[in-house]
C-alpha cells in the first residue's frame, strides 16, 4: 500500500485510527473460549465491527507468540482475514524487530513475503545494516521506533549528547539517509505531547504511528495540534481502550462505539487542515 493510497483512505473515511489487536485470552469475553480458536474469533468480530471507523490494524506479535504455535496460526489467519475482507486497511505487524543484516533479511522475508503485511515496527538500535533489509522491499513500510510512549523513553531516547542533540533526534536525522517518506514512518508516543513540534522540524512530511491514546492517557488533540500535517501524517493507535470495551456478549458493538467516538474526534481534526 503506497503513501497516496494511505492518504486517500484517511480523507475518504475521515479517520486515521489504527485498532490495535493486542488479543489476550485472559481479557477477551470468556464465552469465546469454547471456540476452536478463541483469539481469531475475537479478532474477526472486532475487525468486522470496527472496520468502518479505522484505516489500519496493528496486531502486536507478543500477544500471538505468547500462545505458542497456535498463536502464530491465529496471527496468520488474522492477516489473511484482513487481506481478503478489508484490502484497503493498512496492516502493521508490531514486532519491533531489527538485528544484523543477515538476520534482518530473514525477519523481512517472514513478515513481508510469508505473512504479507504492509509494514513492520523496527527498533533502530543496531543501525543502518539492521534496517536496510526491510527497506529493500518495494511497496512495504518500515516503522522505526523514534520516541516511545513509555516512561523508559527517558533512559536513552531523551538523553542529550554534548551538542544538545537528543538520541531520538539522532535516530530521525540519520534514518532519513536510509529511507524516505514513501517507505518509512516513525513511532512517536501520544504521551510525548509537545515533543511532536520538535519531531516535525526534522521529519515534516513522514507519517507517524502514534500509540498511547486511551489506556496510556495520551491526548489526541495535543498530538494533532503539534504533529498533524497537510496530508494528516498521523496514524493513531488504540488497543485496550477499544478492544476490551466490554467483556459481555456486546463486546464487538462496544468496541465499535469506542472506535466511532475516536473517529468522530479525528474527523473534527481533519476538518482543520
Ligand atoms: O510500537 C508500538 O506500537 C508501541 C510503541 C510505543 O512507544 N508504545 C506502545 O504502546 N506501542 C504499542 O502500542 C500498543 C498500545 O496499546 P494500548 O496502550 O492498549 O492502546 C501496544 O501494542 C504497544 O506495544
Automatic annotation (TrEMBL):
SMART domains: OMPdecase. It catalyses: orotidine 5'-phosphate + H(+) = UMP + CO2. Its EC number is 4.1.1.23. Keywords: Decarboxylase, Lyase, Pyrimidine biosynthesis. Gene3D superfamilies: Aldolase class I. PANTHER family: OROTIDINE 5'-PHOSPHATE DECARBOXYLASE. This is Orotidine 5'-phosphate decarboxylase. It comes from Hallella faecis. The gene is pyrF.
Amino acid at each position: 500500500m503506497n503513501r497516496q493510497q494511505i492518504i486517500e483512505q484517511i480523507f475518504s473515511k475521515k479517520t486515521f485510527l489504527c485498532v490495535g489487536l493486542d488479543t489476550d485470552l485472559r481479557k477477551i469475553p470468556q464465552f469465546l473460549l469454547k471456540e476452536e480458536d478463541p483469539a481469531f474469533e475475537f479478532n474477526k468480530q472486532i475487525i468486522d465491527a470496527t472496520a468502518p471507523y479505522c484505516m489500519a490494524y496493528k496486531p502486536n506479535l507478543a500477544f500471538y507468540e505468547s500462545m505458542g504455535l497456535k498463536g502464530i496460526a491465529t496471527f496468520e489467519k488474522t492477516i489473511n482475514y484482513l487481506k481478503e475482507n478489508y484490502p484497503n486497511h493498512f496492516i502493521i505487524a508490531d514486532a519491533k524487530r531489527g538485528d544484523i543484516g543477515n538476520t534482518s533479511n530473514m525477519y523481512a522475508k517472514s513478515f513481508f513475503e510469508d505473512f504479507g503485511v504492509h509494514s513492520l515496527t523496527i527498533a533502530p538500535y543496531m543501525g543502518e545494516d539492521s534496517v536496510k533489509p526491510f527497506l529493500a522491499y518495494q511497496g512495504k513500510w518500515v516503522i522505526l521506533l523514534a520516541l516511545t510512549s513509555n516512561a523508559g523513553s527517558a533512559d536513552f531516547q531523551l538523553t542529550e549528547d554534548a551538542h544538545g542533540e537528543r538520541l531520538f533526534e539522532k535516530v530521525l536525522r540519520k534514518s532519513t539517509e536510509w529511507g524516505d517518506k514513501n517507505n518509512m514512518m516513525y513511532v512517536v508516543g501520544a504521551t510525548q505531547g509537545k515533543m511532536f513540534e520538535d519531531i516535525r522540524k526534522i521529519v515534516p512530511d513522514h507519517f507517524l504511528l502514534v500509540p498511547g491514546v486511551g489506556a496510556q492517557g495520551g491526548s489526541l488533540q495535543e498530538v494533532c495540534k503539534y504533529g498533524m500535517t497537510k496530508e494528516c501524517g498521523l496514524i493513531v493507535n488504540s488497543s485496550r481502550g477499544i478492544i476490551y470495551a466490554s467483556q459481555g456478549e456486546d463486546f464487538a458493538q462496544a468496541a465499535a462505539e469506542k472506535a466511532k467516538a475516536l473517529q468522530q474526534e479525528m474527523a473534527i481534526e481533519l476538518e482543520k487542515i
